[in-house]
TrEMBL record:
<protein>
    <recommendedName>
        <fullName>TfoX N-terminal domain-containing protein</fullName>
    </recommendedName>
</protein>
């Protein structure tokens, strides 16, 4: 199982800024896997995993392919046991410049389904 780093104040601040940015669309904070998550209508769109950002996109879409093309990105495996979620991408630490665009994609895809 991959060890995740403790969440830093910088990651928490970036997450809070993203939450504030999406609040007008109805996104609120919730919990997922014991960590902070962004939710819409009770369903998770994204979450922090240490200092990494996991975002729910739809499999077989240009959005998930673009996210997986980011340096170090991979399918999110919260258990660390080789069973990744097919609709979730984990953005590595240092990729917070991409968080807002990815969260917007997740929000749009969730609204379409």
């Amino acid at each position: 199982m991959r060890e995740k780093s403790p969440t830093t104040p910088e990651s928490l601040a970036a997450f809070d800024a993203l939450k504030a940015e999406l609040a007008g669309a109805g996104v609120v904070e919730g919990a997922m896997f014991g960590t902070r998550a962004l939710t819409l209508g009770g369903k998770a769109l994204a979450c922090l995993s240490g200092n990494e950002f996991a975002v729910k996109l739809r499999r077989d879409t240009p959005e998930i392919e673009a996210a997986l093309a980011l340096p170090g990105a991979q399918l999110f495996d919260p258990s660390g046991k080789g069973r990744p979620f097919k609709d979730w991408v984990l953005i590595p630490e240092g990729g917070d410049a991409h968080w807002a665009a990815l969260a917007e994609d997740a929000l749009r895809l969730a609204s379409e389904s």
